[in-house]
Amino acid sequence: MTQAFKTRIEAALNARKDQALFRTVHAFDSVKQSQISIDGRSYINFSSNDYLGLASSDELKIAYQDSVTKYGIGSGASPLVTGHSTPHRSLESQLCEWLGYSRALLFGSGFSANQAVLFTLLEKGDLLLQDRLNHASLIEAGHLGPANMRRFKHNDMEDLSRYLNGSQNTLVATESVFSMDGDIAPIDALLEHCRASQSWSMIDDAHGIGVLGEDGRGARSLSEHRPDILVITFGKAFGLNGAAVLCGDDIADYLTQFARHYIYSTAMSPAHASALSKAASMIQTQHWRREKLFDLSEQLHNKVSDLHCLVETKTPIKPWLCGESNNAIDLSNALKEQGIWTTAIRPPTVPKNSARLRITLSAAHHESDIDTLSYSLMRSMEAL
Ligand SMILES: Cc1ncc(COP(=O)(O)O)c(C=O)c1O
To answer: What is the four-CA torsion angle of 248, 254, 258, 264, rounded to 10 degrees?
Structure first.
């Protein structure tokens, strides 16, 4: 490595350490429902996005294994070459029917799906309006892409409407459920603004799909209007990974021709697509998973309401605001001592001075897990 690279990297790493922002990766040894084992010690996992508890479901494992037996392990190619199989096709049809679109395109991740849409659809001279707190994949695509980007105030439709002048081709993008705050965007009002100003609308439903609405339709349950582009990801409520872009025929055809993340990337395996189809059916029929999440959420709010640190949300994402990064790390470590895994989320993932524990609930949790979490939070807050 040249000295200049070395110096730059060392300086950046030291700065992260000095500001209590240094990240490390932990490998888990095993997972069983709400329990996760890391470095030989067992914890209750309150950091996963496996909201419905599907990631370790036996039904899903069997669907995956059966499909591996039939189709093998890998897809072997990108979708336009020979990577697209009948399980991929059935998954797409199932998602279209469920969510009310004519087409779905599958991607390896939500990050690439978001970037593919923004990079491909927008051109120089277009206007991209994004909620200030949108996910890094969207904001980064906006910074790197050719369109003029403006970030409107979080969930503020008045601020959004200031930018909607109808004189440019405009795309408005928001998350449905905000990943770090757990609050819900005013989807109905936003889609109404888009309709009135003839702007395209794009909803990233990563944290809404499977969780919101009676049969888990996520953002689609929040409004009569349909966004032009709906991105759903499979790494959260579906319990797997990957993503889909749902849209009309014209956009789907356009992305198929020009979206580089789609064209030049190996398709997910057929077995993965089969398991996702099974997960989509389970999400729609196993209502008890959402009901349980709601009950656990109520239980947690009731138990810790006196501490005033937990933000009350209608989703399984429960931010516990700590302010300084060091406070979040100390609380996270204190909880680990008591057998609870909650990751400290710090800038730049969240704005400055808003470090937090991002506590997430799952249908895999037991009531006793919530009791343990509440008790440990109270104990740790007293001790710190
Ligand atoms: C709102 C949102 N969009 C997109 C993504 C990216 O999805 P994936 O993990 O499938 O790349 C995430 C992931 O954390 C997310 O929270």
So the answer is: 40
Q: Which residues of 233-245 are buried (b: 16+ CB within 10 A; e: fewer)?
A: bbbbbbbbbbbbb
Give the model confidence (pLDDT) of 296-322 as tens digits.
999 999 999 887 789 999 999 999 999
Q: Could you report the per-residue pLDDT of 335-361, keeping only the tens digit for each? A: 999 999 999 999 999 999 999 999 999
Domains of the chain: 26-52+287-383 (3.90.1150.10), 58-285 (3.40.640.10)
Position in ligand 1 atom list of the atom nearest CA 234: 10
The residues, ordered by sequence, that sit 6+ positions from 97 with a Cβ below 8 Å of its Cβ are none
d(CA 28, CA 343): 14
Residues 6+ apart with CB under 8 A from 12: none
| 98-134: pLDDT as tens digits | 999 999 999 999 999 999 999 999 999 999 999 999 9
Helix (H) or strand (E) holding 379: helix 367-383
DSSP letter, residue 353: T
State the Cα torsion 318-322-323-324 to the nearest 10°.
Answer: -130
Q: State how far Cα 380 lies from the chain centre.
A: 29
Atom of ligand 1 lying closest to residue 242 CA: 10
Tell me how far apart the alpha carbons of residues 85 and 82 are, in angstroms, rounded to a whole number.
8
Q: Residues 103, 96: contact at Cβ < 8 Å?
A: yes
Residues designated as active site? 49, 135, 175, 179, 204, 207, 236
